[in-house]
Automatic annotation (TrEMBL):
Name of this chain's protein: Alcohol dehydrogenase
Keyword Kinase: no
Residue stretches making up the Alcohol dehydrogenase iron-type/glycerol dehydrogenase GldA domain: 10-178
Keyword flag Oxidoreductase: yes
Domain Fe-containing alcohol dehydrogenase-like C-terminal: 189-384
Pfam family name, one: ADH_Fe_C
Sequence intervals crossing the membrane: none
Length: 394
């Protein structure tokens, strides 16, 4: 048990079906006179941005829309959006969409009140000034970006991802309407749900865990265990959608204060170099990372097995912990994530590069087992598929 810890959450949360109908009132309370709406082309084409712009129009609040955002948001997108916000004299930012849109919106809000370039603040706790007001409206149940200190941005030329982490980067308001997730296709529901699970689970077992985050992680995992499969196969199930968005939010509240582990450490370079969707790469890696980490936190992995419905009566703690791994493998299969890292082009020749880049992540020091470069490579090999494992072994 840790003797000293800190927990802080400056973001206000409005959660429930229909909460976006009060958007204009929130903008006024925050002093916004002109709004920059940040959303990727997908949410624009799906009409989600229209659901936000209408209450602004009805209340005669002027706004402009910025949608030049890629799946892995580029630093250039932040710069373009910032220039538009300044040209239009916007003083409040609304981000709507998944992690890419929300991370971009948060970074734009940050740069409206801070000097220099967003690159100047790569790292943690380097931002001097509070961001302009940002309202985050998630449309996926996974990233938790509506509540985190992080904006993860891509340098497309260098094929690397850069993370800006600051309490000043947290949105002013998280406006979470589960109805906005109801049209997500099954594969995105699955991937984002596994991302949320990875957040909760890695936070729970890592060395930075503390009593508040632990309670949040447990609650999030219970909700995901009960609802992710339903949300994938019954997209119209409003209760499952509600529970999954809430589980994602709660998981973000957990890892905000603890960081994560090796799945996320490896996911960053793998995503940057091989264009693997973030939720998918976490789903592929999570069981392999769990297997590696068991000896660092046997008791908690045994508890995870029970959370996911495994019968551990009569088993040793170690045997119960092993059941947690098989439970997550089954969940991943049930929601349709069957890909391996090899399917995205990862080969043995790439492993040195991936392991070396992953080792630089701040998620490595908090992992329950201290890894070597060879450990990270072996985790990737395990996630590349059985043929690769057999080749390496032989």
């Amino acid at each position: 048990m840790v003797n000293q810890f800190r927990y802080e959450i400056p973001t206000a949360i409005e959660f429930g079906n229909g909460v976006i109908n009060d958007l204009a009132e929130h903008v006024r309370k925050l002093g916004g006179t002109k709004v920059l709406i940040v959303g990727d082309p997908g949410v624009v084409n799906a009409g989600v941005v229209d659901k936000l712009s209408k209450p602004l129009e009805d209340s005669k609040i002027p706004y402009v829309t910025f949608s030049e955002i890629e799946p892995d948001p580029a630093i250039k997108s932040v710069e373009k959006g910032l220039n538009l916000a300044k040209e239009e004299n916007c003083d409040l930012v609304i981000g709507v969409g998944g992690g890419s849109s929300l991370d971009t919106a948060k970074a734009i809000g940050l740069m409206l009140t801070n000097p220099g370039n967003i690159r100047d603040y790569v790292g943690i706790n380097l931002v001097p000034n509070q961001a302009a007001p940002v309202i985050a409206v998630p449309t996926t149940a996974g990233t938790g970006s509506e509540l985190t200190i992080w904006s993860v941005l891509s340098d497309k030329e260098a094929k690397t991802k850069l993370s800006v982490g600051s309490i000043y980067n947290m949105p002013t308001l998280a406006l979470c309407d589960p109805q906005l997730t109801s049209t997500l296709p099954p594969h995105i529901t699955a991937a984002t749900g596994m991302d949320a699970l990875t957040h909760a689970l890695e936070s729970y077992v890592n060395k930075s865990t503390q009593p508040i985050s632990e309670g949040l992680s447990i609650q999030s995992m219970k909700m995901i265990a009960q609802n992710l499969r339903l949300a994938v196969v019954q997209g119209e199930n409003s209760d499952a959608r509600y529970q999954m968005l809430l589980a994602s939010l709660i998981a973000a509240m957990a890892f905000n204060s603890t960081r994560l582990g090796l799945a996320h450490a490896l996911a960053i370079p793998l995503g940057a170099h091989f264009n693997i969707p973030h939720g998918v790469v976490n789903a592929i890696l999570l069981p392999e990372v769990m297997q590696f980490n068991i000896i660092g936190n046997v008791d908690k992995f045994a508890e995870i097995a029970e959370i996911f419905g495994e019968n551990t009566k009569g088993f040793t703690k170690r045997e119960a912990a092993e059941k947690a791994v098989s439970a997550i493998r089954q969940l991943k299969k049930d929601v349709g994530i069957t890909q391996t890292l090899s399917d995205y082009g990862l080969e043995e020749k790439h492993l040195d590069m991936i392991a070396e880049e992953a080792m630089l992540s701040g998620n490595v020091p908090v992992n329950p087992v201290k890894p070597t470069l060879e450990d990270l490579k072996n985790i990737c090999r395990s996630a590349m598929g059985s043929e690769v494992r057999e080749t390496v072994t032989n």
